[in-house]
Amino acid sequence: KKKKKQKKKKKKKAKITTVFSEMECVADLFRQMDMRDAAVSQWQELFDQNTFLRRDHRRMQDELTRVRAGGNTNIVHSAPGPSMSNDSVRMSMDLRKAQDDFNQYKTEQQSRVHRLKAELQKKQTEITEQYNRTVKIFLENEKQKSEIERLEKLSAETQEKLDTATFQLSDLRQCTAEQKRTIDTLTMQLNSHLKARQELEHRCVELEGEYNTLIQRWKEKAEEDANRLNADNDAAMRALQAQNLKALSDQVMSEFTGTLPPRRASDSQGPVSFCRPPTKVGRTIAAHDDEVNCLAFNFTGTLLASGSSDFCVKVWDSLTGAARWRWRDASQMVMSVAFSPSGDLLLSTGNDRNVRIYDVNRGRLIHTMSGHSDKVFSGKFTLDNHVITGGHDRVIKIWDLNRVVCVRNIGCLSSCNAISLGMGGGMLASAHVDHSVRIWDPRTGGSIHTLEDLHAEQVTSVTFSNDSRLMLTSGKDDRLVLIEPRTWRQLHVLGHQWYRCGFNWTKAAFSPDARYALIGGALGRLYVWDTNTGRHEAVISRRAELNERDFSMSISEVGWNPNGSQVASAHKDGKVLTWVP
């Protein structure tokens, strides 16, 4: 700071010295002007003397002329004669001498005048140049004065900024000191945490050893349980194979005789009946305030459950259409409902990622199970009091209702739109967004088979027939595929020129005797196919005009009553319709 002040003083001193030198130049200019005035005065005196001499010369010429007129006119050019007086001769000589002196003086004065004029002109030129230089210096001086003022102003601003920066620097030093103290404190805490971490790592090593020991013991126990379950499974598979062999022989006999074999109660999950396709609307139920996404019949076919985008689950009397129960526990859309095999419990899943279990007899919520990380599109009960759910978090979960916990997670690599159980609960099928259907063993969580590229777009549903001899899938590509689960062979590809899939979760259904396949379209119509021939049977509409395009009546799911008496459909306009033959 002192150096800056000294430098500033030196600059001011240099500027003052420059101003003084300029003032001396101006004084010299004034002195030169005084000298010019003196020269002019001297020239004026010489001019006056020249004028006086000219006057004397003229007077003397006049006198000479008068003398010549009065006497001898050749006095100047001829020699004096005896007749000329001495005075006239002397006067003539004086006059000649005076004329010569005058001529000499005149010549000298003229040369002097010329010299003085040249000097005067030179002085005037020098004075003019000096004046111009002085004016230029004066203007530069004024400019320098304005520059000095600007620099002084800039210096004042710089000084003010310097003071502000000094103040900020002081604050920053204080903040730095505080941060240093904070860093010291944090360093001490970090050292203590590192020490605690070392202790925890040592404890983790000990716990890991204990964990390995427990895992080994658990593996031994699991191996014992697996051996026991394998024995039970072998017995069940032998019984199932015998049952399938009997069903195959019945089918061969039916093909040979041209008639359908009689169905046994043990071959299906509901009452046995001979089904006919629906032809008209039996009842219209104004079920919900928003689109209905799902529905399901109970085992006896007396109750019908529905779930909607209005967050409600409702239970209806399937014969009268009267409401039995209404629950609004979900915080988002309800995407699937399903009854337990006994009909006492009802399951619902939805976009709020939760699985809820309701007591149908008492009409209340008994369990809410959380574990999925994305919306849950499907859920089913098993015969051993378990629940299986599939969602868009690419995980299929198996829940134990006795303990209300998830006992197994099955990673499926793609979002799951629907699941279905077959073979008495020994086979699980899942429909996925990646155009494939995956088959699992729910008891072990292992993969059995994968059906890839069944559809050109995502698979919206998969379902087994009651006797598990057929499997039906539907896709967003407006097609249905009928598959034989024993060989995974495609039997028929079902479609219709008017059928359009309305939702990503559109569900198809079998008739209880597996003779017909049924699905609802985007235009509110039912489409029925014969599963034996793959031939299209009927298109049923709630209105007489089949070509009417009304997408507000799109159907999301259909269900066939287990007693075969009616079909239910869930519609986008909030209604549930029952259809009868």
Summary tags:
581 residues; alpha+beta; 4-stranded antiparallel sheet; 2 helices; 28 strands; 41% helix; elongated
Structure description:
Helix content is 41%, strand content 28%. It has helices at 2-70, 86-257, and strands at residues 280-286, 292-297, 303-308, 313-317, 323-327, 334-339, 345-350, 354-359, 364-370, 376-381, 386-391, 395-400, 405-411, 416-422, 427-432, 437-441, 446-451, 459-464, 471-475, 480-484, 489-494, 509-510, 516-520, 525-530, 536-541, 555-560, 567-571, 575-580. It has two helices and 28 strands. It is α+β, with helices and mostly antiparallel strands and 581 residues long. The protein is elongated, with a radius of gyration of 63 Å. Strand 11 and strand 12 form a beta hairpin. Helix 1 (2-70) runs antiparallel to helix 2 (86-257).
Rg value? 63 Å
Strand order of the largest sheet: 1-28-27-26
Structural class call reads alpha+beta
How many H/I helical runs?
Answer: 2
User: What is the N-to-C order of secondary-structure elements (H for helix, E for strand)?
Assistant: HHEEEEEEEEEEEEEEEEEEEEEEEEEEEE
**Oligomeric state of the chains present here:** single chain
Helical content stands at 40-55%
Whole-number mean pLDDT: 83
> N-to-C terminal Cα separation, in Å?
106 Å
